[in-house]
Amino acid sequence: MNSIEKNTEKYLDAFRTHFNGEAKQAFHATREKAVDTFSRLGFPSTKKEEWRFTNVAEISRKQFSPAGRNSSETVSVSDVEKFMFSDWDGPVLVVVNGYFKEKLSNLDSLSDKVKVESLAKILDNNDKAANKLGQNAIWADEAFTALNTAFTKDGCVITVDANSENSKPVHLMHISTGDAILSSPRTVVNINKNANITIVESFHSLNSKDSFTNIVSEIFVDENAHLKHYKLQDVDTNSFLVGNCAINQNQNSTYQSVAMDFGGKLVRNNISLALNGENISSILNGLYIAQGEQHIDNHTFIDHAQPHCESHELYRGILKDKAKGVFSGKILVRQDAQKTDAKQSNNCLLLSEDARIDTKPQLEIYADDVKCTHGATVGQLDESALFYLRARGVPYKKAMSILTYAFAEEVIDSIKTDAFKNKVEALLLERLEKSLV
Q1: Using an 8 Å Cβ cutoff, are 221 and 193 in contact?
Q2: Rounded distance between C-alpha atoms, residue 431 and residue 386, angstroms
Q3: Strand 114-118 relative to strand 155-160: parallel, antiparallel, unpaired?
């Protein structure tokens, strides 16, 4: 038995002892199936095509213990305030080590058309909302999704009523306390017909002790519904994060995602969209910034199943030192998906000779009346532009900072929530001034 197999076995042992009252839930039968699947699959190796450029051996070797509810009790209101955005006046939902903490949350400004529930309560009551679990995020051949499903105890369920609009964005804040903990938060978002909402999701660490957050999110955007989904990942650089976000869209709906990755030692983001109706619009934008020996991997999959839909995708990376980035984006256009308009672009800026990017844009098209493009570029700062600024008295580091910010600006400008946009700009400028250039 090799070290990876041994650690897989340790998670199986932990599963047998981790659940007390929760074992009585109807959902526990699903947990048992999921842990059996994880046992069969094991941690993915670089021999698997989807993981060829990302080695998770360090995750498998480390001794992460599943987070118990007691581990979330040490976080205070003052801890939460450290991660609040300036000028934010909307509701805040706080999840600590995978557990929804209503006492730390601020629901005062939450619209009565938006319902927020603890997943633990839904599972305890065998509520029908639990039926959503596993509809989008399939775990039959995804080890990390199976692992999350096996250890799912709590999380957040957000439901937006039909024909409603929440004027204030909702901030869903994830906090990890470290201490070699495995957090398994589960998020379910239901946007009903003709509803409109903005959700900002952020990930933070309370300290520099290593942790592993393995999150699964399932999002349902119904007919003519609209969701702006902004994400900020700023965990400590000793932390590991694997996220699987699966979105299902119905006809005439729109989904816009802007994902910002700043932290993490090893980060893997899987985003999959199923466009299951006509006249759907999907936008996936992302910015990843890494230095030292950080590793950030973005995998996207957009499934065009119906005609007259469009998807636009723009990811940009800034890498320095020995940092590594991975981008793999696949667009599938099925035979019935005529009149599809799909665009995909990945651009990466390397600020050192040792930084590396592996990029793999893909198109798989079975329809003949489509407009589809994809491409990737990798390069350094434009020397002529750098010379132009320096010739006009701009110091070297300031000139590099200006050009690097300009490279990221198109993604940042796609954010339409000011408080979140201001936070992202501040983080980027802080990194530019301190270390990136």
Answers
A1: no
A2: 19
A3: antiparallel
CA atoms within 13 A on the CB side of 359: 19
Q: Are 250 and 278 in contact (CB under 8 A)?
A: no
Cα gap 80→46, rounded to integer Å:
37
Taking a C-beta distance cutoff of 8 angstroms, is the pair 240, 212 a contact?
yes
Residues making up the chain, counted from first to last: 437
Q: What percent of the chain has pLDDT over 70?
A: 99
Q: Which tens digits make up the pLDDT trace of 58-116?
A: 999 988 999 999 989 999 999 999 999 999 999 999 999 999 999 999 999 899 999 99
Q: Can you tell me the distance from the alpha carbon of 157 to that of 87, in angstroms, rounded to the nearest whole number? A: 25
Rounded CA separation 95/396 (Å): 43
Which residue in 14, 23, 154 sits closest to 96, CA to CA? 154
What is the Cα–Cα distance from 437 to 435, expressed in whole angstroms? 6
Nearest to 247 by CA among 214, 231, 215, 271: 271
From residue 405, how far is each of 226, 262, 432 by CA, in Å?
29, 14, 8
**Rounded CA separation 197/171 (Å):** 11
**Amino acid (1-letter code) at residue 166:** N
Q: State residue 95's pLDDT score.
A: 98
CB 181 within 8 A of CB 65: yes
Q: Which residue has the tokens 């946007």?
A: 191
User: Measured between alpha carbons, how far is 174 from 107 in angstroms, rounded to an integer?
Assistant: 16
Q: How many CB atoms lie within 10 A of CB 329?
A: 24
Q: How far apart (Å, rounded) are the C-alpha atoms in residues 147 and 156? A: 18
Specify the pTM: 0.95
Q: Are 309 and 334 in contact (CB under 8 A)?
A: no
Q: In terms of Cα–Cα distance, which of 258, 124, 96 is closest to 184?
A: 96
